[in-house]
Amino acid sequence: MPHVERGMQVGLFGGxxxxxxxxxxxxxxxxxxxxxxxxxxxxVTPGNPLKSVRELAPLAERLRLxxxxxxxxxxxxxxxxxxxxxxxxxxxxxxxxxxxxxxDFVWIMGADSLRDFHRWxxxxxxxxxxxxxxxxxxxxxxxxxxxxxxxxxxxxxxxEAYAPRLAHMRAPAWTFIHGPRSLLSSSAIRRQEGR
Length: 195
Prior knowledge:
- There is one protein chain.
- By secondary structure, the protein is of the alpha/beta class.
- It has one domain (about 10-195): HUPs (Rossmann fold), CATH 3.40.50.620.
- About 35% of the residues lie in helices and about 15% in strands.
- It has helices spanning about 20-35, 60-70, 80-85, 90-100, 110-115, 125-130, 145, 150, 185-195; strands at about 10-15, 40-45, 75-80, 105-110, 130-135, 175.
- Strands 3-2-1-4-5-6 form a 6-stranded parallel sheet.
- Helix 4 packs parallel to helix 6.
- It is globular and about 40 Å long.
- The relative contact order is 0.20.
- It catalyses: nicotinate beta-D-ribonucleotide + ATP + H(+) = deamido-NAD(+) + diphosphate.
Protein backbone atom coordinates (compact mmCIF):
# COMPACT_ATOMS: atom_id res chain seq x y z
CA MET A 1 0.00 0.00 0.00
CA PRO A 2 1.20 3.54 -0.60
CA HIS A 3 2.63 5.39 2.39
CA VAL A 4 0.22 7.68 4.26
CA GLU A 5 0.34 9.66 7.50
CA ARG A 6 -2.29 10.01 10.21
CA GLY A 7 -4.74 12.82 9.52
CA MET A 8 -4.46 12.57 5.73
CA GLN A 9 -7.51 12.48 3.45
CA VAL A 10 -7.11 9.72 0.89
CA GLY A 11 -9.34 8.69 -2.00
CA LEU A 12 -9.65 5.04 -3.02
CA PHE A 13 -10.33 4.69 -6.73
CA GLY A 14 -10.49 1.03 -7.72
CA GLY A 15 -11.19 -0.70 -10.97
CA UNK A 16 -9.94 -3.10 -13.57
CA UNK A 17 -8.69 -0.18 -15.74
CA UNK A 18 -8.88 -2.42 -18.78
CA UNK A 19 -7.53 -0.26 -20.34
CA UNK A 20 -7.07 2.93 -18.33
CA UNK A 21 -7.94 6.10 -20.23
CA UNK A 22 -8.23 9.88 -19.95
CA UNK A 23 -11.76 9.53 -18.48
CA UNK A 24 -10.28 7.70 -15.48
CA UNK A 25 -7.66 10.44 -15.09
CA UNK A 26 -10.44 13.06 -15.21
CA UNK A 27 -12.36 11.27 -12.42
CA UNK A 28 -9.17 11.08 -10.33
CA UNK A 29 -8.38 14.78 -10.86
CA UNK A 30 -11.95 15.84 -10.02
CA UNK A 31 -11.84 13.71 -6.85
CA UNK A 32 -8.48 15.15 -5.74
CA UNK A 33 -9.70 18.70 -6.21
CA UNK A 34 -13.32 18.53 -5.04
CA UNK A 35 -12.70 16.23 -2.05
CA UNK A 36 -9.56 18.13 -0.93
CA UNK A 37 -7.56 14.89 -0.92
CA UNK A 38 -3.93 14.58 0.07
CA UNK A 39 -3.61 11.43 -2.04
CA UNK A 40 -5.64 9.25 -4.36
CA UNK A 41 -4.88 5.53 -4.61
CA UNK A 42 -5.51 4.34 -8.18
CA UNK A 43 -6.09 0.69 -7.28
CA VAL A 44 -5.72 -1.64 -10.26
CA THR A 45 -7.61 -4.80 -9.36
CA PRO A 46 -6.29 -8.24 -10.27
CA GLY A 47 -9.78 -9.18 -11.45
CA ASN A 48 -13.41 -8.19 -11.38
CA PRO A 49 -15.96 -10.73 -10.05
CA LEU A 50 -18.60 -9.22 -12.36
CA LYS A 51 -16.48 -9.54 -15.51
CA SER A 52 -14.91 -12.39 -17.44
CA VAL A 53 -11.24 -12.99 -16.65
CA ARG A 54 -10.60 -13.68 -20.35
CA GLU A 55 -11.31 -10.08 -21.29
CA LEU A 56 -8.76 -8.67 -18.80
CA ALA A 57 -5.31 -7.61 -20.00
CA PRO A 58 -2.46 -8.79 -17.73
CA LEU A 59 -2.20 -6.90 -14.44
CA ALA A 60 1.36 -5.69 -15.18
CA GLU A 61 0.18 -4.13 -18.46
CA ARG A 62 -2.78 -2.40 -16.81
CA LEU A 63 -0.47 -1.06 -14.07
CA ARG A 64 2.04 0.26 -16.62
CA LEU A 65 -0.69 1.99 -18.65
CA UNK A 66 -2.27 3.45 -15.49
CA UNK A 67 1.05 4.91 -14.38
CA UNK A 68 1.46 6.52 -17.81
CA UNK A 69 -1.95 8.22 -17.55
CA UNK A 70 -1.98 9.13 -13.84
CA UNK A 71 0.59 11.93 -13.92
CA UNK A 72 -0.42 13.89 -10.81
CA UNK A 73 2.17 13.14 -8.08
CA UNK A 74 -0.63 12.82 -5.51
CA UNK A 75 -2.01 9.83 -7.46
CA UNK A 76 -0.44 6.57 -6.30
CA UNK A 77 -0.97 3.68 -8.72
CA UNK A 78 -1.05 0.41 -6.80
CA UNK A 79 -2.08 -3.22 -7.13
CA UNK A 80 -1.83 -4.16 -3.45
CA UNK A 81 -5.03 -6.24 -3.68
CA UNK A 82 -3.09 -8.85 -5.68
CA UNK A 83 -0.40 -9.09 -2.98
CA UNK A 84 -3.05 -9.59 -0.28
CA UNK A 85 -5.14 -11.94 -2.46
CA UNK A 86 -8.20 -9.73 -2.00
CA UNK A 87 -11.08 -10.24 -4.41
CA UNK A 88 -14.01 -8.18 -3.16
CA UNK A 89 -14.19 -4.43 -2.48
CA UNK A 90 -15.63 -4.98 1.01
CA UNK A 91 -12.52 -7.00 1.93
CA UNK A 92 -10.22 -4.37 0.38
CA UNK A 93 -11.81 -1.60 2.43
CA UNK A 94 -11.59 -3.65 5.64
CA UNK A 95 -7.89 -4.28 4.97
CA UNK A 96 -7.20 -0.60 4.21
CA UNK A 97 -8.93 0.45 7.44
CA UNK A 98 -6.98 -2.11 9.50
CA UNK A 99 -3.57 -1.15 8.07
CA UNK A 100 -4.03 2.65 8.17
CA UNK A 101 -5.42 3.85 11.50
CA UNK A 102 -5.98 7.58 11.75
CA UNK A 103 -6.31 8.12 7.99
CA ASP A 104 -9.60 9.41 6.56
CA PHE A 105 -10.56 7.49 3.42
CA VAL A 106 -13.22 8.08 0.77
CA TRP A 107 -14.27 5.42 -1.72
CA ILE A 108 -14.54 6.94 -5.21
CA MET A 109 -16.64 5.54 -8.03
CA GLY A 110 -18.02 6.69 -11.33
CA ALA A 111 -21.76 7.20 -11.60
CA ASP A 112 -21.92 4.33 -14.08
CA SER A 113 -20.82 2.00 -11.23
CA LEU A 114 -23.49 3.38 -8.89
CA ARG A 115 -26.16 2.13 -11.28
CA ASP A 116 -25.11 -1.53 -10.70
CA PHE A 117 -23.60 -1.15 -7.24
CA HIS A 118 -26.35 -3.23 -5.60
CA ARG A 119 -24.94 -6.25 -7.48
CA TRP A 120 -21.59 -5.97 -5.75
CA UNK A 121 -20.74 -8.49 -3.04
CA UNK A 122 -21.70 -7.02 0.40
CA UNK A 123 -22.57 -3.59 -1.03
CA UNK A 124 -24.29 -2.51 2.18
CA UNK A 125 -21.11 -3.25 4.12
CA UNK A 126 -19.15 -1.08 1.65
CA UNK A 127 -21.60 1.78 2.25
CA UNK A 128 -21.03 1.44 6.00
CA UNK A 129 -17.20 1.35 5.85
CA UNK A 130 -16.10 4.66 4.31
CA UNK A 131 -17.86 7.71 2.89
CA UNK A 132 -18.38 7.47 -0.87
CA UNK A 133 -17.98 10.06 -3.61
CA UNK A 134 -19.80 9.30 -6.87
CA UNK A 135 -18.33 11.21 -9.81
CA UNK A 136 -20.64 12.06 -12.71
CA UNK A 137 -20.22 10.04 -15.93
CA UNK A 138 -21.97 10.51 -19.30
CA UNK A 139 -25.37 8.82 -19.40
CA UNK A 140 -25.32 8.15 -15.66
CA UNK A 141 -26.17 11.55 -14.16
CA UNK A 142 -29.59 10.43 -12.94
CA UNK A 143 -28.24 7.28 -11.27
CA UNK A 144 -27.88 9.24 -8.03
CA UNK A 145 -31.68 9.47 -7.95
CA UNK A 146 -32.75 6.18 -9.48
CA UNK A 147 -30.27 3.48 -8.43
CA UNK A 148 -31.15 0.89 -5.80
CA UNK A 149 -28.29 2.09 -3.59
CA UNK A 150 -29.20 5.77 -3.92
CA UNK A 151 -32.76 5.00 -2.85
CA UNK A 152 -31.68 2.72 0.03
CA UNK A 153 -29.20 5.30 1.36
CA UNK A 154 -31.00 8.51 0.40
CA UNK A 155 -30.91 9.55 4.08
CA UNK A 156 -27.08 9.47 3.99
CA UNK A 157 -26.66 11.66 0.90
CA UNK A 158 -24.61 14.80 1.50
CA UNK A 159 -24.85 17.90 -0.68
CA GLU A 160 -21.79 18.16 -2.93
CA ALA A 161 -21.01 21.58 -1.42
CA TYR A 162 -19.73 19.60 1.59
CA ALA A 163 -17.49 17.32 -0.52
CA PRO A 164 -14.23 18.71 0.97
CA ARG A 165 -15.40 17.47 4.40
CA LEU A 166 -16.67 14.07 3.21
CA ALA A 167 -13.54 12.16 4.30
CA HIS A 168 -14.14 13.26 7.90
CA MET A 169 -17.76 12.10 7.94
CA ARG A 170 -18.89 8.85 9.45
CA ALA A 171 -20.29 6.26 7.05
CA PRO A 172 -22.83 5.95 5.69
CA ALA A 173 -22.30 9.24 3.90
CA TRP A 174 -22.13 9.78 0.17
CA THR A 175 -22.24 12.59 -2.34
CA PHE A 176 -22.70 12.96 -6.06
CA ILE A 177 -20.19 15.28 -7.71
CA HIS A 178 -21.17 16.98 -10.95
CA GLY A 179 -18.51 18.27 -13.29
CA PRO A 180 -16.78 17.73 -16.60
CA ARG A 181 -17.41 14.29 -18.09
CA SER A 182 -15.48 12.16 -20.54
CA LEU A 183 -17.22 10.01 -23.14
CA LEU A 184 -14.35 7.50 -23.07
CA SER A 185 -15.05 4.00 -21.72
CA SER A 186 -12.79 0.97 -21.40
CA SER A 187 -15.33 -1.35 -23.04
CA ALA A 188 -15.65 0.96 -26.06
CA ILE A 189 -11.85 1.14 -26.39
CA ARG A 190 -11.63 -2.68 -26.26
CA ARG A 191 -14.30 -2.94 -28.97
CA GLN A 192 -12.36 -0.53 -31.20
CA GLU A 193 -9.20 -2.56 -30.66
CA GLY A 194 -11.06 -5.80 -31.44
CA ARG A 195 -10.57 -7.31 -27.98
